[in-house]
Amino acid sequence: MTWLITGGAGYIGSHVVKAMVDEGERVVVLDDLSTGDPQRLPEGVHLEKGSVLDAELLDRVLREHSVRGIVHIAAKKQVGESVERPLYYYRENVQGLQTVLEAAVRAGVRSFLFSSSAAVYGMPDVDLVTEETPCAPMSPYGETKLAGEWMVRATGAANGIATACLRYFNVAGAARPELGDAGIFNLVPMVFERLSRGESPLIFGDDYATADGTCVRDFIHVEDIASAHVAAARRLAEDNSAALVLNIGRGEGVSVAEMVGIIASVTGRTDLAPRTVERRPGDPARVVAAATRIEEELGWTARYDVREMVASAWAGWCLRHPESARG
After folding, report:
1. Do the beta carbons of residue 136 and residue 122 sit within 8 Å?
2. What is the spatial distance between Cα 180 and Cα 176, in angstroms, rounded to a whole number?
3. What is the pLDDT of residues 92-136, one digit of tens each?
4. Rounded to an integer, what distance in angstroms lies between the CA atom of residue 247 and that of residue 129?
5. What CATH number does domain 2-171+219-248 carry, 3.40.50.2030, 3.90.1150.10, 3.40.50.720, 3.30.450.40?
6. What is the CATH number of domain 174-217+251-289+303-326?
7. Position 282 pLDDT exceeds 80
8. Catalytic annotation, residues
């Protein structure tokens, strides 16, 4: 069967494409290249440049490539930007998904895998976040992901489409340096950027109710994210009644202070002690996944530890910023 992967030329999308191709799956990619790069794609993978809002394009691609499964990764994903531009996020993430689902129904697609986010949970006051933890997103971005899950599940149930919604936690790392995250929006690349400039990393608040006072997060290697997609896609292809909602995490919390220390060790910049600044609004003290359901449902567990994530991410950073490797 052939899979359409929307957003497949992006950071996470290209890792999913690579993993599925490595497993022998036939893949076609749709990406508007607003943040994606065609150079990320394996040789021989067909790329259609365009928007998920373009229904005619979607109909043509699904028909011409006889697509029977869709992995929908394309989305806008910056929390701060979503607060400033909520209508833009609702159009791209919710209307875009609706357009893809409508095309899927017209084309007789039988499997639909949706990339969701731990942002659907908001600020849960629990030790481990399970899939039953109440969802209370704190940003338009998180709201669009939760609305997307509702739409995927309802459409699947009404049209006999097997579905899975995968809730990512904090993604880092790279399978190869050239596939590294080019954005500077998450903790790891933000620390890389400051260290590369000879500046102390920033820690936003050290007075949280955690062991060292800094926020605790569940960091997951992007290769593990990709392998979880392969496992989910395989399950959907085999089980036409599947309607899964699964966390993708390691089930282990790492504090921001611990992560900054690991980054300093890996990069060799232990001379730049972190500097604590004021908290950022809306940062929960602890968000760590319960990762048992995905193991039970798919037989999947994470393989990589935090140091491996940081080392692979640093190799990608140095490829794009060679002066960092020298400095």
Report:
1. yes
2. 7
3. 999 999 999 999 999 999 999 999 999 999 989 899 999 999 999
4. 9
5. 3.40.50.720
6. 3.90.25.10
7. no
8. 141
